[in-house]
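Postdoc handover notes: sequence design on the structure in folder B. Input tokens:
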């Protein structure tokens, strides 16, 4: 039975929650203050704590810190009577799984509790594994994940890890789909490193950069003198990956003729260098990736259906960064750690305003875009935190500009519709922010440059939510 601790100074709420959770199969204890809660935590092992933010002797922030320090395998959900995005961000950064507001709804509570427990169990299971980021070099240390690979806490991330663990031990060919920059090569490496082939080569090949003339030589190799310019014998990527894994990125860009040659090699598991009569036996696992719609490419005659079915023994879709929820902060923190090492800096985190920008921005370039952004912001940062001053305009202004008409898609704010008024607002906002950044956010100097008084500047900043 899974044991839960409820900490709330309102006895009736604790009693109602306790009865509800008991009916749903949980063992529940209650406490009305911080001291009694810590005593119960020392006496019993709890999978989850539901803690009211305001208590008579402390608050949820301090309870959360103590639990994370003393009982790191216990999940925490904070309950409060009001909604405050800055407080929610702070609590999540401190380690809370989620933050819910009163009044409490049974179905919502139960769903959040089940997800929190599932996440905590996954984190405990992987507590000795390195945290992820989607782009890294192949691991040289034989670990089960690529160096720097980040395991997120969201349902989407856990499902991705589950599929990797499911398919990795097999020899199945795998298709990885997803937008550019979502970390398909990192997932391919992870599959390789968790497979029986982990001690054999992992060879990555960018098919998007291959010309029709070069492709055959790169895939299959060639003998010296086999064609004009063949000044030496070349080993092809299939032969280099023999015994291991061959990762073909952007495979949809290959010409139809090369696809035909590739099909024969995949079917027969033999390769012959250009200009040679000797066939070489292959034992290669193939993982391919694309940001295109394969079905559409087949219908348009750009990709061979028979080759697609050879590759499609298993498929994994990588969600875009904007759909990764709170995992966005995990990715950002990991990239910050890497950037600090690269640049010999000691930036410890992000301001609350920047965290809100990270969670709101649409990330069209996905993980690759975030990695470059964090590196740039770390370099420009003047203090221990990355602040709005270090952000490029497109990220710093995204939330404010998209809020002009308040539209959202899948929970993500979308840019406002084009219109004369909106264009003027966007231009005014960008001008104000640029001037403020140029003068290190000195409002007196900014007002002078903008040729307006300070009061007008304050009013304009307030109108566009720039504080």
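Designed sequence:
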């Amino acid at each position: 039975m899974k044991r839960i601790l409820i900490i709330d100074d309102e006895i009736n709420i604790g009693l109602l929650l306790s009865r509800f959770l008991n009916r749903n199969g949980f063992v529940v204890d209650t406490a009305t203050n911080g001291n009694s809660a810590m005593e119960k935590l020392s006496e019993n092992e709890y999978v989850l704590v539901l803690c009211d933010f305001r208590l008579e002797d402390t608050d949820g922030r301090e309870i959360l810190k103590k639990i994370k320090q003393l009982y790191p395998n216990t999940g925490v959900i904070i309950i409060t009577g009001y909604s405050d995005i800055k407080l929610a961000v702070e609590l999540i950064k401190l380690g809370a799984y989620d933050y819910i507001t009163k009044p409490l709804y049974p179905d919502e509570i139960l769903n959040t509790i089940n997800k929190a427990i599932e996440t905590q169990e996954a984190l405990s299971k992987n507590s000795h594994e390195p945290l992820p980021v989607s782009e890294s070099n192949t691991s040289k240390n034989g670990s089960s994940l690529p160096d720097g690979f980040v395991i997120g806490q969201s349902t989407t991330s856990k499902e991705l890890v589950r599929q990797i663990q499911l398919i990795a031990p097999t020899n199945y060919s795998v298709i990885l789909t997803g937008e550019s920059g979502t970390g398909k090569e990192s997932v391919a490496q992870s599959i390789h490193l968790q497979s029986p082939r982990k001690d054999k080569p992992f060879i990555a090949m960018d098919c998007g950069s291959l010309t029709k003339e070069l492709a055959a030589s790169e895939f299959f190799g060639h003998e010296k003198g086999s064609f004009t310019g063949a000044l030496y014998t070349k080993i092809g990527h299939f032969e280099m990956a023999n015994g291991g894994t061959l990762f073909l990125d952007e495979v949809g860009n290959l010409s139809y003729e090369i696809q035909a040659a590739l099909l024969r090699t995949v079917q027969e598991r033999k390769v012959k260098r250009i200009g040679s009569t000797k066939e070489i036996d292959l034992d290669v696992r193939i993982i391919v990736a694309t940001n295109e719609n394969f079905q559409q490419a087949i219908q348009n005659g750009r990709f061979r259906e028979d080759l697609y079915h050879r590759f499609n023994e298993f498929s994994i879709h990588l969600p875009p960064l904007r759909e990764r929820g709170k995992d966005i902060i995990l990715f950002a923190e990991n990239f910050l750690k890497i950037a600090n090492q690269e640049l010999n800096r000691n930036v410890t985190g992000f301001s609350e305003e920047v965290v809100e920008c990270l969670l709101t921005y649409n990330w069209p370039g996905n993980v690759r875009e975030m990695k470059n952004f964090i590196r740039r912001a770390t370099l420009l940062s003047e203090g221990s935190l990355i602040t709005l001053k270090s952000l490029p305009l497109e990220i710093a202004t995204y939330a404010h500009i998209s809020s002009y008409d308040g539209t959202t898609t899948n929970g993500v704010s979308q840019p406002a519709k084009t219109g004369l008024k909106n264009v003027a607002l966007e231009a005014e906002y960008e001008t104000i922010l640029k001037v403020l950044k140029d003068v290190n956010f000195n409002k007196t100097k900014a007002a002078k440059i903008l040729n307006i008084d300070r009061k007008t500047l304050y009013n304009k900043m307030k109108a566009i939510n720039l504080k």
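Context for whoever picks this up: Residues 106-125 form the longest helix (20 residues). Don't rerun without checking with the PI first.
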